[in-house]
C-alpha cells in the first residue's frame, strides 16, 4: 500500500512548495459558494518531512498530490 505522497502547493506567482505527507491524511476544504480553498490539513509522513511554512492561502492557484512508493 502506498502511504506516502508528495503534496505541492502551486502559487499564483509560479513558485511551488513541496512536502511529503501521509496519503490518507489530506483534507482540502473549499468555500461553498466561491469554490476557493479556505483550509488544507495533512499529517507529515515523518519528522524529516516537517517544515514550517507561513502560506497566504489566497495566493495558492492549485494543489497537487502525487503518490510515491
Any overview of this molecule?
- This protein is mainly β.
- It has no helices and 5 strands.
- The chain has strands spanning about 5-10, 15-20, 25-30, 35-40, 60-69.
- The protein has a 3-stranded antiparallel beta sheet, with no helix packed on it.
- It is globular.
- The termini are close together.
- The model has no long low-confidence stretch (mean pLDDT about 85).
Key words describing this protein structure:
single chain, 69 residues, mainly beta, three-stranded antiparallel β-sheet, 5 strands, 0% helix, globular
Number of strands: 5
Strand order of the largest sheet: 2-1-5
What general outline do the C-alpha atoms trace? globular
Q: Which sequence of SSEs, written as H and E, runs from N to C? A: EEEEE
Compute the separation of the termini in Å: 8 Å
Number of DSSP helical runs: 0
Proportion of strand residues: over 45%
* Helix content, binned percent: under 10%
Structural class: mainly beta
| Unreliable residue stretches | none
- Largest beta-sheet details: 3 strands, antiparallel
Q: Compute the gyration radius: what is it? A: 12 Å
Mean pLDDT over the full residue set: 84
